[in-house]
Amino acid sequence: MPRQPPGTGNSGLTVFLFFIFYFFKKIVDHFVPSVI
Predict the structure, then answer these.
(1) Cβ contacts of residue 19 below 8 Å, gap of 6+?
(2) What is the mean pLDDT for each group of 10 consecutive residues in the chain (36 residues)?
(3) What pLDDT, on the 0 to 100 scale, is given for residue 12?
(4) How far, in Å, are 2, 21, 26, 33 from residue 17 at the CA level?
(5) What's CA 20's distance to the chain center, in Å?
(6) What is the rounded distance in angstroms from the CA atom of residue 5 to the CA atom of residue 16?
(7) At a CB cut-off of 8 Å and minimum separation 6, what does 12 contact?
(8) pLDDT at 35
């Protein structure tokens, strides 16, 4: 993994939260297909 330049901590956290949200949505869509 390439070294991140200073000041990108917030961006990394945003991406991390995005993946958590995406994973959670995939689970919700699996159990509740009607959810958009």
Answers:
(1) none
(2) 61 86 90 69
(3) 78
(4) 20, 6, 14, 23
(5) 4
(6) 17
(7) 4
(8) 56
Q: Are 12 and 5 in contact (CB under 8 A)?
A: no
Output the pTM of the full model.
Answer: 0.49
3-state helix, strand, coil in the chain (%, to 5): 65, 0, 35
Q: What is the residue whose two structure tokens read 């159990």?
A: 31
Three-state secondary structure call for residue 2: coil
Q: Amino acid identity of 6?
A: P
Length of the chain equals: 36
